[in-house]
Every structure is written in C-alpha cells, then in structure tokens.
Amino acid sequence: MQQPSFLDELEAEAIFVIREAYAQFERPTILFSGGKDSIVVSHLAQKAFAPAGIPFALVHVDTGHNFPETLEFRDRYVKQIGAELIVGSVQDSIDRGTAQEEQGPLGNRNRIQSVTLIETIDRERIDCLMGGGRRDEEKARAKERFFSHRDAFGQWDPKNQRPELWNLFNGAKQPGEHFRVFPISNWTEMNVWHYIRREGIELPSLYFAAPRQVIWRSGSWLPVSDFISLRAGEVPTTKTIRFRTLGDITITGGIESEAASLDAVIAEVETLRQTERGNREDDKRSESSMEERKKQGYF
Amino acid sequence: MNVLRFTTAGSVDDGKSTLIGRLLYDSKSVFIDQLDAVAASSKRRGTELDLSLLTDGLKDEREQGITIDVAYRYFATPKRNFILADTPGHVQYTRNMVTGASTADAALILIDARHGVVEQTRRHSFIAGLLGLRAVVVCVNKMDLVDYREPAFTKVCEDFEALRKAAGLPEVHFVPVSALVGDNVVDASGRMPWYQGPTLLSLLEELEPIEPAAASDFRFPVQLVIRPRTSEHHDFRGYAGRVAGGRIALGDPITVWPEGIEALVNGIHLGSQELQTASYGQSVVITLDRDVNVARTSVLSAGSQPKREASLKAKLCWLDAKAHQPGLRYEFRAPGGQGQAMIAEVTKVLNLDTLEYELGDGSLGSNQIAEVVLRCAQAPTTEAYSDQRIMGGFVLVDPVRGATVAAGMIQ
C-alpha cells in the first residue's frame, strides 16, 4: 500500500476540522476572499461532505475596491459549487455611517472591513466563519487556534485562548459570540500550492504573470485602478507581474514574474525567499500590526 | 513518516527561542522580509542579530521577553516536513506544555550544560511521558559556555537515565549543541571532536516514533451523518469521521457502539473517490450494508471490544484559571461520547517538584495534574490512552462559560 503523503495528512486534518465546524455550529459559513487559501478551504469543504453538496454559504466582504477578475471568479465559482453567496459591502457601511473611510495618503479600506464583517455576522446570524488563515503566514497567527473564539465585538483575546488538545475542538459560546475556524492552520504556502496542483483547483488569473498597468509604491508594483490616485512622481508603466495574495486592489502589490502557468508559479515560489504577505502594505505599519488588527476583529 | 510533529518547552534563559531560531535560520526556513524585521528590531534594541526574535510572536511576549502560549512553527528539509509546537516552560504554563504535547510525536528537551538536569527538565520529561510521546531528543545546550568539554555532556546523559525510567520514555537521544553559535544544530561542529553522533536536525529527520494506534484494532468515531437526499444519491447514508485506530477494508465486519450492532462495511469514500481501505489518520465516509442507528459520537469498531464504562479512572490536567469546584457537573467531550460528567474523586495529586503522586485534599487548581475518578451520565466509548491517544483523550468543558477546563487521559 502506498504511504499517505504529507498532503494527504494535511487534507485529512482539514476535512476533520471542517466537519467539526459543521457539527458544532448552527450557521457555519466560509469567509471567501477569492484568494487561493479560501478557494482551497472551499474545495476541502466540498470533499468533506461528498457525495452531499457543500453545506456552507460563502461570505464575501466587498471593499468596493476589487480586482474585476476576483468578482468574476467569485460569481462563477459560487454557481459551479452550488453554494449560497452572502456579500457584506464596505460601501454600505460607509453610507450608513457605521464605518469611516481612512483619511490621508496612506488611507485604505483594509481596517474598516472588520466593521462590515461584524455587521454581516450580526445580520445573517452567523456563528462560525471558516477561513484560509495559516499559522505560517505571520507571527501573531502562529498562536492561533483551529477554533478561535471571538467575543460579541468580534475581538480576539490572545491571552485567553482555549487550549486545544488532540483533535478535540471546543465551539461552546455565549449568545452573540462567534468562532473563526481555520482548517488549513498547519499548511504552509508551499503545501497550498502543491495541493492546488494535485487537485487541479482553478485559480483567478491574477495569480499568473501577465502584462499589467502598474505604479511602483512602497516596494512593490501596485495595479493602476480607478481607486488609487497617483502621487507626485508616480508614472504608470506596463510590467509583467503576478500577485502572491489577493486583497483590496489599492493595497495589493504584485511582483515581477514570468510565471504564467501553475508549474512555473510553483517553481518560482519554491525559490522565492520572501514571505507572501511581504507585499501587503497593511502589515508593514508596525511590528505588531497583524496582532492589533486581529484583536479588532480582522480575520 | 513524512512529517514529524514535535514539541519543545523552555523558559527565559535556557536558549530555546535561540535554538528554534537557529533551526529555522540554518535550515533556510526564514524569509528575507522576516529576517529584515528581526534585524531592524535587534538594532533598535541595540543587540546583534537576535534569532530568538523570530519565534516570539505576541506583542506582550516581546515586551516581557517571555513565551506565554503555544506557537506553531513550520519548516521542511528535503527529507521531511516538521511541525513544531513551541511552548513556555515554567510551572505556571504546565497546561500549555500539555497542550503542545498532545498533538506531538516527539519532544525536544533543552538542558543548559552548565546546570544539568534541573527541576524544569524533570517536569518536561514527565509531561512528555504522561502525554505518551514515543521519542525524546535531549539537547544539551550552551556547550560553548563549558568550553565544549565532554564530561559536562556525559554527566547530563547519565543523570537523565533515572529520569527516563521515572517518566516512562521509551526512546531518548542526546546531542551536545550551542544554539547561539550553531554547533551541531544543523551543521556538525568541529569544536566537539569527541561527539560522533548526528546533528540535531539529522536526528529529527531520522526519528521514527511508533504510534501504537496505527497498528491497533479499528476504531472510527463518527463526526456526522452524510445524507445527500438528492435523486442521484437517494438512499445514501454515510458516516463521516477520521480513523482513530487501525485500518478497515471493504467487506470487513464492524460493530456499531453504543448499540453493539454488527454490520459490514460496503463503501469507503473520500470526496468522489471510492477507496478499498481506510487507515489510521484518514478522514473518510463509510457506508454499511444495513440500516443501523448511527449518530455523532457513535463508534465503529473491529477486533477487540472498546471500553464502555461510565466510571473512568483518568489522569487529569487542570487547564482553567478557576479551580475545580467539587460537585459541579462538567460537559465531557471525547470522540466517542459527549455528555454530563462529574469528578467523583480526586485520588492523588502530582507534586510537580518531586514528580510523585501524593494524597491531596480533593482540590484541583490551575496547572495541577491529578489521578481522578470521573463519573459520566452515559458511558462513552473509549480506550486506554496508552493504547490509543485519540480514543483515550478527553476534555471537560464548563457548561456555563464554555471554557475548556481540563484535559484527561483514560487509564
């Protein structure tokens, strides 16, 4: 008999966690960004319940500043897997006055996404959001649980986390509280890519190199879009780039690359010696910026 | 084994964070931007490149210079993938050590070559034994501070032998290192010619700890029932779970607990694949040849009969900050049962200094380890923890606050 591979083991663990979320919560959902990690979680969720259909709605927090490709992919994907789609709109939160746009040249909508997310959780009575967060992404996430408890304000208290022993996950909660669940906690970026290749999972075209209109800002190539205003000295040029993560288009920088196929991307990722969040401007603000945002309810 | 899950425990001064930083750094598992951040941070503090900063995650920890929770690290070599549960080592973090060890195959124990086996070494070793870890690697660190002399190393090895027996550790390896300088962590050291053994990383690459549950009788705790109710799969009724012991093949007879009803396995599914067998660790959906009453926490078993008792002797580690209140009913959670339970008796409490179980006064507080008798409202389906970790482990949950208050190992 063939020895199960490391990917098989990671898959088995993730499927177990997803099934636990389904068993322990009333309204479990998947937080879907259109990025590769949330696509992998959705794929695993399909596998966990086959031959039954995927029993989770996909929740998308729409900052209004999207890559057009992300929205196209999202709508096609949801139809293909037969899942319900729930959209929380950051623009609606701003219009309602519950969220305020950040001012200044570095202002973006990353931080106020948390407001929209919590509003969506309340509106839809969601008690569990599964996400593609991984412990290898960032040092604050290294201490994250599979089942991460959030209070009624959506806040994470790193000093008061529930111990997780063996594979016993505790989803007990008070009314108004919810859980974030991270089935691929133990995966690394490389594992995710290898799994995508093995399973033949389709990704948005943004992950693959193509000529794109960009400007050079804060050490990476930022795509030109209707949502950014050029600063003094910034001149749009066309570069062959691809994106390592997908987020708000105003802050997601790309890297110069010729990797236009999955195999080429994997070969490139294997040799890259920079973490993938390195091109996200939001993490660079301070040494503990991820931790601060997590405490406030960021995923 | 394609992956080694291991745990380590250590406190402020024994160089644990530096050792892990060194493992990550020398195995080229650190990315440029992470290293840049550490270099900038070291500079602000006026120190040289401080590798320990690679592993100290939370802000409070960086401010206080301590590790207060379990942090998980990942690295890989061409030979193997590693998942490291990095935990604090002080007595008030016993619960974190127990948590980190619960999912590990092996433990890495650090000993300061200048101080030898100390109280904390004893505690870490004992916890490794208690949680059933099969292999332990003892790192005798700070060899640079004892001029790389062999007797300092030999003394630790000899002193550890008594501890090995007391803690019940089947397999122990020793390696002399200097995490600060990098001797014998990833690269062999030229400063200790008397040591011919492997470096720490080669040892970790070669360890093959045996998981007894993999070769035991088949155990399959059911997570949920899959019923598609579609025209294509109209009568499909499958049981989803992860194999907690042994293996099963199509056509094999199994027994469904708690009812004790027998049936045959007629389907094993993983996604759209149909499998012939399912082994320890695999998440699958199993179908049976007849309609049986199966629900979450039911257990499918083959071979020997699983343990079915409402009164259970167990080792219990108290995790919660609030002490146990005698008479309180907790929620018992295990793969093979969930329901009310109470601690009928705190038989003995572990003295963390002497590592002897002593008669207690019935109380049980944070970080304490005790022998207890648990009484469950309904008998769960379990196994002795020493035979099957997954079937033999359980937690107690406070029914009001929802907190996980204790973790137990069935005897």
Structural write-up:
The complex is a heterodimer of chains A (299) and B (411). With 299 residues, chain A is of the alpha/beta class. Chain A has two domains: 6-195 and 288-295, Rossmann fold, CATH 3.40.50; 204-282, no CATH class. Chain A is built from eight helices and ten strands. Chain A has helices spanning 6-24, 36-49, 68-81, 90-96, 113-124, 189-199, 262-271, 289-295; strands at residues 28-31, 57-62, 85-89, 128-130, 147-150, 178-181, 210-217, 220-223, 237-242, 255-256. In chain A, helix 6 (189-199) runs antiparallel to helix 7 (262-271). Chain A is globular, with a radius of gyration of 19 Å. The model of chain A has no long low-confidence stretch (mean pLDDT 87). With 411 residues, chain B is an alpha+beta fold. Chain B folds into three domains: 3-210, Rossmann fold (3-Layer(aba) Sandwich); 214-301, Translation factors (Elongation Factor Tu (Ef-tu), domain 3, Beta Barrel), CATH 2.40.30; 307-410, Translation factors (Elongation Factor Tu (Ef-tu), domain 3), CATH 2.40.30.10. Helix content of chain B is 19%, strand content 35%. Chain B has helices spanning 16-26, 32-44, 59-64, 94-102, 119-130, 150-167, 200-206, 389-392; strands at 3-10, 71-76, 81-88, 106-112, 135-141, 171-176, 219-226, 238-242, 247-249, 253-257, 261-270, 273-274, 277-279, 283-288, 299-301, 307-308, 311-318, 330-334, 337-351, 356-358, 369-376, 381-382, 393-397, 404-410. In chain B, the strands form five sheets. Chain B has a six-stranded mixed sheet with strand order 2-3-1-4-5-6, with helices on both faces. A six-stranded antiparallel barrel of chain B has the order 7-8-14-11-10-15. In chain B, strands 17-21-19-18-23-24 form a six-stranded antiparallel β-barrel. In chain B, strand 18 and strand 19 (337-351) form a beta hairpin. In chain B, helix 5 (119-130) crosses helix 6. The longest helix of chain B is centred in the middle third of the chain and has 18 residues, at 150-167. Chain B is globular, with a radius of gyration of 24 Å.
